[in-house]
Amino acid sequence: MEGSPIPVLTVPTAPYQDQRPTGGGGLRRPTGLFEGQRNYLPNFIQSVLSSIDLRDRQGCTMVVGSEKIGRLIIGQNGILSTPAVSCIIRKIKAAGGIILTASHCPGGPGGEFGVKFNVANGGPAPDVVSDKIYQISKTIEEYAICPDLRIDLSRLGRQEFDLENKFKPFRVEIVDPVDIYLNLLRTIFDFNAIKSLLTGPGQLKIRVDAMHGVMGPYVRKVLCDELGAPANSAINCVPLEDFGGQHPDPNLTYATTLLEAMKGGEYGFGAAFDADGDRYMILGQNGFFVSPSDSLAIIAANLSCIPYFRQMGVRGFGRSMPTSMALDRVAKAMKVPVYETPAGWRFFSNLMDSGRCSLCGEESFGTGSDHLREKDGLWAVLVWLSIIAARKQSVEEIVRDHWAKFGRHYYCRFDYEGLEPKTTYYIMRDLEALVTDKSFIGQQFAVGSHVYSVAKTDSFEYVDPVDGTVTKKQGLRIIFSDASRLIFRLSSSSGVRATIRLYAESYERDPTGHDQEPQMNEFDKLWPAQSGFPSILFVSAQMHNTTK
Ligand code: G6P
Ligand code: ZN
Cα torsion for 175, 235, 543, 112, to the nearest 10°? Predict the structure, then answer.
């Protein structure tokens, strides 16, 4: 610390009316909007910080933040994955953390930019906090900033600054982005078992794609340096501002480089992550796809392969409502409860904090456990490698054995994007009237020789078992008598235009019926032509199938 105190400026500003954080996603907007609208970013950051009670804010630690805050923790070169932020917040008992990320969307100029806010338990801000931030952002009149504060992001360790209005020095700590997270992983997994799998004669050849997001350094350090995978197992490991022009979303539509490499047959295990490392996709040899819902159920059934769960026990499972019910079959066999929550990781936090839930997952390529309060892509990869090491089977064998034991939940998701919000509102309203009408119960629909009869319909509502919060209108469910389901849901993470998601799940107990392509279930034929649906959607939106 040297020289005279660094001035803290209070800058007058005008509020924006459109800074409502989306559930879980924080504030995500086109990069151009952040650049072009005056004070758009500082306004929002100030609103986030002001949402923390002054008493808690003074002298607290934030994982990346500012103003009246005593200490900042920043990842070296500004790189921290979402799971690592959750890990650090919990470890050092910070008041929260701010993550600047486009998440799984194209980033950089011409792409998107986002600000996520995690709270003191390490999890995404719950809705009450997001509402508070939104209210503040609509009336904000000034923000505080230290334009002259120069932090060397490359230098590990503590840097202290004398800020004008502070008695104590303002501390900034640059931490190794991987170290703290790696140490947590060491307490969860049997590193030796994974290392034996990845090294020596007969080693499992893996291919892991960091998609030019933040995961590169984590993948290299954990999988290559620590667990012995050859350096060329890890690809696209240099974090790039625009993700190399790619869409860093680990699914069959966007992780095509990995899919093609896996189809070559040379590798036995493939994985990809999104830009901030919370989402993941698993592929087996020849591009065998593990659906996120199946991945969750298989992990649940094999938790005893992981030292962490052997030690801690398994208390319960959580899945978002649209996630397939494959998990429920495992839970039933293990005699543990399943909590069915609205989409969005934040709904799992209370369950985990209160010790009700050990493992959670979503169909949107996220799985995690109570080691953190975020979904965690690299953790999921280490879980899979542990299972492969313990069972001595290939990815495909593990999945097929699982289906043989529990039955297969065929699963497809269709996204109708770019819809006019008003039209979307009417579609969902009319659809709700149609499916919740009493006459809809008992109706039968035939697809080939398979007859589905409607057993139950509703508009999904969640009552948080911990604090009693009620969350309504979380999707329309049509549940058939054999546990197959059709779900219509409004996406909460789309921007100005709206997105309707259609989730189709068909249960097949008989192992001779486990070899179909999921889309052969042609769910659209289920729908009586005269209802006018889904043709309404087909004409008004572009369809993307992301989870085939
Ligand atoms: C974000 C959250 C996920 C959630 C997803 C839902 O990615 O981090 O936890 O599943 O949003 O998105 P949607 O567009 O389906 O509302
Ligand atoms: Zn993400």
Answer: 40
